[in-house]
Amino acid sequence: MLTDAAQRSTASGAPLEGHDAVAVIGGGIAGLVAARDLARSGARVVLLEAEDDLGGRVRGESIDDVALDIGAESFATRGGAVAALLAELGMSEDIVNPAPLGSWVVTADAMRAVPLPPAGTIGIPATPLSWATLRALGVLGACRAAVEPLLPPSVGRTGALDEVIRARLGVRVLDRLVRPVVLGIHSTDPAEMTLRSVPGLAEAYKRRGSLILAARDLRASRTAAGGAVAGLRGGMASLVTRLRDELDQLGVTVRTSTRVVALHRDDTPAPAASGPAVPEGKRTPGLWRISTADTAQLHADAVVLAVPEHIAARLLGHPEVTPAEVEVVALLVEDPRLDAAPRGTGALVAEVADAPVITAKALTHVTVKWPQRGAERAAGRHVLRLSYGRLGRAPETRELDDRAATARALIDASRILGLELSPSAVRGMRRRVWTNSSISHAATSHPLPPGITLAGDWVSGTGLASVIPGARRVAADTLAALHRSVSGSTPTGEVHPQR
Ligand SMILES: Cc1cc2nc3c(=O)[nH]c(=O)nc-3n(C[C@H](O)[C@H](O)[C@H](O)COP(=O)(O)OP(=O)(O)OC[C@H]3O[C@@H](n4cnc5c(N)ncnc54)[C@H](O)[C@@H]3O)c2cc1C
Fold it and tell me: What is the C-alpha separation between 364 and 367, in angstroms, rounded?
């Protein structure tokens, strides 16, 4: 059942029919990392990815020979899990820190633009009476926040994150800092979250009895979301290339352009739509049968489902989940005024009740944020990345053609940066719509059939700093279950752990 990884064929074009110990479905970071760990421990692994390319929401693009990440472009350094993986992959030297310029918050009516107080956890100011916080909140808002450590712990003890922040820190902290940061990082509204949704925050709050003191602790320990980030010299997409190479070396069968459409326990009959049924005599009870869009089938003892929530729900027969969409529109712009980094590394856009004139929810000034992009800056070329799609709304650019989307992004960039950028300065554009996970954990609330495990950001939390350790835990759990089945029902199976 399990075999030595070194004996695996590397032929990714091998026929799909067959029996692999573990099928990993989904070749985003979660699936790639889980497949790697499983294969390193000696499991036979096949990885099935629907798209032509691996990486999922980590993806490289280029505009006019200028490379950029059109999905994730950095990772949070909290916890050290990403750095540990990069070290294993020999990529530690590729880690780069963003320029220490900080980012800004701009209101959607373009009336206010202030630097974001540095290193606050999800926007909670660690030093409420600092110059940066006073600028962001005004004197009243900063003083209201500053009294928070004096409030009894009973204030804002329970409830959604927005209620807790409003009760303890005031409405300005919520509207001007926390909401834009949460929307930017988690693509969700604080009303949809609790303190527990933010790694480390609930524990630190319980310990200190104050959100401000908790934010200070987390800043010092760098364990919370929304703190320090780092990137890779070759872009985050270089991690995908490296993981793919490693899977090939480990003998993992990688099948791209292979969309999984159904999963069946092999002791249950397959519906006609999922491809030819396996002849009765050839069925092996207890194995999972995986059907793909091209009607191929394969068997596996265990399945790691590393697909987004709405796909997992469909494959598991759970109630439908509607995914949230975001669109990234990246512009290559030649304008020397951008060298001055008018909004530091970028800006988050805070919603306003009246007359919004900016529809983007965030802008990253890529060529300023990443110091390794000096050559492009020297050539006067700048990459601006705008993201669209607030909670519960389709991205404003979704239905626009490329021309109109470029025009929209240029107007938003001009308003966010406080510069009138000319259409003639635009050298090119790339765009991509992504589905983003909710953090509702709706599908995880259903019991899973034996042999199936779930990986990905909707299970472990948004962002690579949560996805990577989560996928590693799933690989370890899957392996432990396989070991149990090897020692129990299949005494001839072999396992050759490599760690
Ligand atoms: C615009 C954007 C910017 C982001 N920026 C950052 C950032 O800077 N830092 C950060 O840490 N995080 C960032 N994130 C979040 C981060 O990208 C994700 O949390 C992470 O990449 C999710 O990885 P995953 O493997 O769980 O899911 P995915 O990357 O979505 O991978 C799932 C894979 O499953 C495949 N799949 C789907 N259906 C099937 C099927 N039926 N059969 C086979 N395969 C299937 C998909 O094609 C995909 O490749 C960003 C996300 C977005 C959208």
Answer: 9
The token pair at 123 is: 């926007």
Question: Which DSSP category does 448 fall into?
Answer: P
With the most atoms of ligand 1 within 8 angstroms of its CB, the residue from 37, 73, 95, 307 to mutate is 307
Taking CA atoms only, the protein residue closest to ligand 1 atom 26 is: 456
Written out in words, the top-level CATH class of the domain with range 5-56+237-321+440-488 is alpha beta
Render pLDDT for 254-271 as a digit per residue (tens, 0 to 9): 999 999 999 998 765 444
Structure tokens at 488: 């129990």
Cα–Cα distance between 349 and 110 in angstroms, integer?
9
| 73-120: pLDDT as tens digits | 999 888 899 999 999 999 999 999 999 888 898 989 998 898 888 766
Decide if 117 contacts 132 (C-beta within 8 A): yes
Q: Confirm or reject CATH 1.10.3110.10 for domain 120-226, answering yes or no.
A: yes
Q: Which CATH architecture has domain 74-79+96-100+324-436?
A: Alpha-Beta Complex (3.90)
Contacts of residue 393, defined as CB under 8 A and 6 or more positions apart, other chains included, come to none
Report the alpha-carbon distance of residue 15 to residue 20 in Å, rounded. 12
